[in-house]
Fold:
Amino acid sequence: MFDSSVVDGTVNGAAQGTALAGGALRKLQTGQTQLYVITIAIGAFAIAICVYLFS
Structure:
């Protein structure tokens, strides 16, 4: 009873969450390298600003 409801439910829920996240992330993959580079640069800049302001 415990195994079929709790353990299996947890594993199935994790699998479903992974599938949903993969479906959402698939839409973000455009194949445009320039977009990836700009996104990484903006993220690095934001991190640098946060480190500068909060340290």
About this structure: The chain is about 85% helix and 0% strand. The radius of gyration is 19 Å. The chain has a mean pLDDT of 91.
